[in-house]
Design a protein that fits this description.
The structure is a homodimer. Chain A is of the alpha+beta class. Chain A has two domains: 8-79, Orthogonal Bundle (Arc Repressor Mutant, subunit A), CATH 1.10.10.10; 89-250, Beta-Lactamase. The first copy, chain A, is 49% helix and 18% strand. The first copy, chain A, has helices at residues 15-28, 36-43, 47-59, 77-87, 90-106, 147-155, 158-167, 170-185, 227-250, and strands spanning 63-65, 72-74, 110-116, 119-126, 140-142, 189-191, 200-207, 213-221. In chain A, strands 5-4-3-8-7-6 form a six-stranded antiparallel β-sheet, with helices on both faces. A two-stranded antiparallel sheet of chain A has the order 1-2. In chain A, helix 2 crosses helix 3 and helix 5 packs antiparallel against helix 9 (227-250). Chain A binds a DNA duplex through residues 1, 12, 14-16, 35-37, 45-49, 51-52, 55, 70.
Chain lengths: 251, 251
DNA sequence: CACTACAATTCCACTATGTGTAACGCAATA
DNA sequence: TATTGCGTTACACATAGTGGAATTGTAGTG
């Protein structure tokens, strides 16, 4: 293969692992189950190679094959790894004592999000009273389309911010490039839900003491919330976030 | 390398992927961050190989390196994959409408668990009133040590059941070998919490229509719950589980 | 401050092993 | 039964992944 590797980050890296991860990424996009040939074409690898990679991933439960259609999708193994990761993540432990309290004090659903590869990933939640019909836990959204994601991306380092820009839609990207400083300095951010069913979100950052947000704390609210009510909610969020941040930097 | 591969499952499988997955497994056990040399020894691979594998995994955010200690741990990328997987998992969508309702009706914390490689992985929850101080979301427990895991393992196929046996402690294993049929046929299972802080659990299976439990629905309860109260709770769980099961097999 | 110990990282020669092409099997149509 | 459209396997070649040893970096100790 041509040595067109100009990206310095990839030095001393294994092609097979790169390919395996590429496939996991492809599986994570689009429909739940996908055709081998599609995956081969989209990845630029030969069918045989994709087949071998998938077989290896299936053996590890990181992928699975639908017995009826023989198509491939992500497997349950990824959740096991994820839960192990989250179970030992300091931020979540630090936030844990405050979440239920916060839910009870505000009456709203409280969520915790991380920034991963330009996406806001919602990793924990405590559901409020209403909930509505559409309760989508397990959300992964382009960071710049959500309040939580904006809080995280705005205070992240340059590569992470750039990834967020790449992940975003054009309009969001243009908005973000103007607003980054404002977002970073604001005590809290608010983003109105786009779709009718989607709730609006109010978010603050949880800092690790080095001035970088390691997680976002958010509440889902009605789109017609008053300015005053938002301020009250924000104060409550900030209080919990700083308390959690203290236990983080403390130890 | 010696061709001692007698395991038929691993035919046509990539060693590099096997090794990468092995490392992810090692990272998911024990402390959050681990030394390169430990990992090399435990995996049976050379230090150089482990280093290259980890570097590749870090590039994909499936692993990360603590900047202070230079030790390696799981990375946030696994959560992104996991949330994508869970977000499209039919069972969770089918259960979603009932979870909050169930929490409100019972007052207890409701949880949803999957069986993954012999472990009960808790993938969704709706927190109840109390919660107590210790709210450990993101649990991964040996399946046979929990009510949810027993429900799932007992109705699973043979390899999955065997994995659950391997994962369990000796006592649990001996108990399980006697009880499997009873567990599979019982309308619900109850397991008292072991530690003082640990809640007890009452669980039922969510069937996909083929008589196999694809998820477990559980509530956390006090250890001194009365038989009668347990029956009432179980009825409510079963009702939600069968309703979700219908929408599953329906479409 | 030198010296030591230990851990992560890089170098390099070797061939094991992952790769693509092409053939095969096996359903579902028509 | 022919045909199409998949997933799966065979095979020969050279890429690219491997382990041992050398090298850097970082604390800890006298």
């Amino acid at each position: 293969m041509a040595e067109s590797d100009v990206r310095p980050e990839a030095r001393g890296t294994l092609g097979t692992v790169r390919n395996a991860v590429l496939l996991l990424d492809l599986l994570s996009e689009g429909p739940a189950y996908q055709h081998l040939n599609d995956l081969a074409e989209r990845s630029g690898l030969s069918v045989a190679t994709v087949h071998r990679l998938l077989r290896s991933l299936v053996l590890a439960d990181l992928a699975e094959q639908d017995p009826r259609s023989a198509r491939y999708g992500l497997g349950p193994g990824v959740t096991r790894l994820s839960e192990r990761y989250l179970g030992r993540l300091p931020v979540l432990g630090a936030l844990a004592p405050y979440l239920v309290r916060l839910r009870d004090a505000t009456g709203h659903t409280v969520q915790v999000a991380l920034l991963v590869r330009g996406n806001a990933v919602y990793v924990d939640r405590v559901d409020g009273q209403d909930g509505g019909i559409y309760r989508d836990a397990h959300r992964v959204r382009p960071a710049l389309a959500t309040a939580a994601g904006r809080v995280l991306a705005a205070s992240a380092d340059t590569p992470a911010w750039d990834q967020a820009l790449e992940t975003a839609e054009r309009e969001q990207r243009e908005l973000a490039e103007k607003k980054r400083d404002a977002w970073r300095q604001a005590p809290y951010l608010y983003v109105a839900g786009e779709a009718a069913a989607e709730a609006s979100e109010l978010a603050v950052g949880v800092s690790d003491g080095q001035g970088r947000a390691v997680a976002a704390l958010a509440v889902a609210v009605d789109p017609d919330i008053t300015e005053e009510r938002a301020g009250t909610l924000a104060r409550q969020l900030i209080q919990a976030a700083t308390a959690a941040g203290r236990t983080l930097s403390h130890d």
